[in-house]
């Protein structure tokens, strides 16, 4: 009887949390003078982010949850530095400025983060303002999802059972919003919120690609959770493609 009562309480708490965490984007009406991107003139900005110097060792997660320990037999390290053949993954790359005159539709599909094996997947993600963000719990243990935001409204909701989902969104651009779990202190993820679709997260050895970019001169920013940001200027002509390379340098004292 006591177990059933506790389970009922958990369901009520989960429903309340889902209601508080839900913030579906309202219907979007473009302004009458909206400036659209001419798709016949767009180009591509692509490139690679590399790391130079000693790669700092990722801390080992201090797991104190029996389910998480079973899911990660032998232990695991955090994802502060993911390096493949010298390329640095999990770097958020975006066009930083000079797109203010354009109007961009809010994507109809949701960006998704899953809590799987007591880790956030993916570790770094990008999303447009107003776009739905779905956060789910695939684990048979309780998680708490807390967003630490400085510009947007943060959120904090519990997902005590496997299969629970919460949907929310961000109204303002913000790079970056930190996502953490108050139950499992090692869990961490980052969300880059921008007002346009020209962003990406490096993978496959530091590779990135920004497609369908209108002609213009832009500042491209690369952000890494431990190494900070770098910027480069690039000018893109009609139907032009440009290649960029970012190099983050480390020293043995980098935490």
Explained architecture:
The protein is mainly beta and 255 residues long. It has a single domain (2-23, 42-249), classed as Immunoglobulin-like. The chain is built from two helices and 18 strands. The chain has helices at 2-21, 66-71; strands spanning 43-52, 83-84, 87-88, 92-95, 111-116, 119-121, 124-128, 133-137, 143-148, 155-159, 165-168, 174-180, 188-194, 199-201, 207-213, 216-224, 228-236, 241-249. It has a five-stranded mixed beta sheet. Residues 1-12 and 14-22 have low confidence and may be disordered.
Helix content class? 10-25%
- Topology as a string of helices (H) and strands (E): HEHEEEEEEEEEEEEEEEEE
- Beta content comes to 35-45%
Mean of residue pLDDT values:
89
Q: Name the CATH homologous superfamily.
A: Cupredoxins -  blue copper proteins
Domain count = 1
Ranges where pLDDT stays below 50 over 5 or more residues in a row are 1-12, 14-22
Shape: globular
Largest sheet: 5 strands, mixed
How many H/I helices? 2
Q: What key phrases describe this protein's structure?
A:
255 residues; globular; mainly beta; four-stranded antiparallel beta sheet; five-stranded mixed beta sheet; 2 helices; Immunoglobulin-like
């Amino acid at each position: 009887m006591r177990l059933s009562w506790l389970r009922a309480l958990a369901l009520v708490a989960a429903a309340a949390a889902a209601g508080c965490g839900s913030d579906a984007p309202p219907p979007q009406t473009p302004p009458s003078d909206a400036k659209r991107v001419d798709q016949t003139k767009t180009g591509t900005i692509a490139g690679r982010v590399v790391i130079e110097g000693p790669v700092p060792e990722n801390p080992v997660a201090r797991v104190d949850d029996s389910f998480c320990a079973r899911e990660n037999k032998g232990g695991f390290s955090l994802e502060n530095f993911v390096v493949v053949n010298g390329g640095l993954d999990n770097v958020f790359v975006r066009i930083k400025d000079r797109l203010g005159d354009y109007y961009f539709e809010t994507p109809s599909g949701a960006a998704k983060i899953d809590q799987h094996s007591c880790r956030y997947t993916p570790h770094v993600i990008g999303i447009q303002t107003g776009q739905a963000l779905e956060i789910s719990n695939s684990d048979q243990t309780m998680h708490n999802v807390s967003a630490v935001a400085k510009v947007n409204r943060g959120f904090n909701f519990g997902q005590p059972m496997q299969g629970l989902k919460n949907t929310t969104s961000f109204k303002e651009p913000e790079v970056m919003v930190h996502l953490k779990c108050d139950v499992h202190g090692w869990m961490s993820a980052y969300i880059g919120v921008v007002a346009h679709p020209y962003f990406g997260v490096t993978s496959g050895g530091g590779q990135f690609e920004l497609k369908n970019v209108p002609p213009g001169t832009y500042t491209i920013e690369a952000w890494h959770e431990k190494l900070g940001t770098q910027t480069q200027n690039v000018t893109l002509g009609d139907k032009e493609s440009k290649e960029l390379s970012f190099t983050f340098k480390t020293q043995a004292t980098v935490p």
